[in-house]
Amino acid sequence: MTGSGKSMRQRMLDGELYIADEEIERDYLRAQDLTRCINALSASDGETKRKLLTELLGALGEDTEIRTPIQFDYGSQTFFGARGFVNFGFVCLDVARVTIGNDVQIATNVQLLTAWHPVDPERRRDKWEAASPITIGDNVWLGGGVIVCPGVTIGENTVVGAGAVVVKDLPANVVAVGNPARVIREI
Questions:
Q1: Would you list the DSSP string of 29-71?
Q2: Which in 21, 102, 134, 141 has the greatest CB count within 10 A?
Q3: pTM for this model (two decimals)
Q4: Which residues are catalytic?
Q5: Is 178 helix (H, G, I), strand (E, B) or coil?
Q6: Domain 8-186 coded CATH 3.40.640.10
Q7: In which band, very low, low, confident or very high, does the pLDDT at 3 lie, cut at 50, 70 and 90?
């Protein structure tokens, strides 16, 4: 417990600065064990993969397909809508909540990164960290190698071009490209 009366896990879930403790480490190790099992499955073992993904994730919508390999920090903080597709190489640092809408297409090697660290060198050295949630709207397409940074919301129907780094919110119904991602046209 800290001076605020909150556990480090609760501070983490509330998006406050925290230092990982035994409870957080236990949750992390659980996710790593499940992820390792999922990644080791044969591509033809879809039923077992779906069962393990359902155990790992906060939610896995109907008919959402996730190809391996994948990597999550906790899994339980990630919520997938229905009819989505995630290609291989997906990385989700879900220290904060990650909400992915319905009909979302995620290409290869996409990273959703909720975690961040203080700029102050002493706090970093002392292992303080935090996270901000990511929200991906319905019918979004994230191209290959897209990186979505902490605290970002991407509006519905938006397309993010390959290799883009999304550091701020993107509105609905646009195409965005580049580093940092910028809107180049409306849909």
A1: HHHHHHHHHHHHS-TT-HHHHHHHHHHHSSEE-TT-EEPSPEE
A2: 134
A3: 0.95
A4: 117
A5: coil
A6: no
A7: low
